[in-house]
Amino acid sequence: MSQIKRGTGIAALMTLTITLLLAGCSDPNAQAKLFDPQTGKHPDGWAASHGSSYAAYQNVCHDCHGTDLNGGISNTGCFTDAACHAGVTSCSTCHGDPPTGAMFPNTAGAHAVHIALNVALTCSDCHTGAGSGTALHMNYVADVNLSNTILTTFKAKSGAVAYNAASVTCAKISCHGGISTPNWISGAIDVNSQCGSCHTFGTSSQNPEYNSFWSGEHNRHVNGEGIWCTSCHDTTKLATVHFNDLSTPTMTQAAATLGNQIISYSGGSCSPRCHGNETW
To answer: Where are the domains of the chain?
Structure first.
């Protein structure tokens, strides 16, 4: 965001006004974060932190730039001044595409992971009605309003898709096997050791969820012998196909992605290191 302009003829008035505003501000943190009292300008590094500062101290910003941020007594509009956000045409003007930062309004979270999936997701799929020009935009809340694409295409078998703002998680998403997801901001899934976070043993094809494993000798090996998924499925080789077909009940077959305990697999016949050939 640009520094407050100090044009000829209004410099003295601006300096006096800012001084009075700062003197009346009861929060010393706001003074330190928003202004340099010696110059009446925003401090160095302001551009990198102005989003989070505005979220915390918006009333102080409104004192100078107006409640609509279009100028106010500073005569500098946050969305009309050429040096600021004038001519905003896309989400990426204020947010990375996807968001990549560590603070509002560009908090990275799990955006990059989901955008990288082989699924055509857009901002509006998860933030429907919260874009620029809507009542929900710039309300200092990451409003999650899931589109019909999410609610229907990625619906788990066990119930309706839901978002929990308190825990920042989703539930009943088919991609996660209907199980509650990790926290969007701080959570993660290690595909090498946490297969069970999304995949559970089923009773038949696609039961209880689309990605439930059940066929052949899965039950004996996984539940009976305690052999982990990655012994037979190489997650590195799976990386390019693991999340294909997330929007369909039929998941990508992974038979050819052999793990380090499998010598060969063909036509339902497996040759593992632990014993001889076996029909799966």
So the answer is: 11-74, 90-188, 189-280
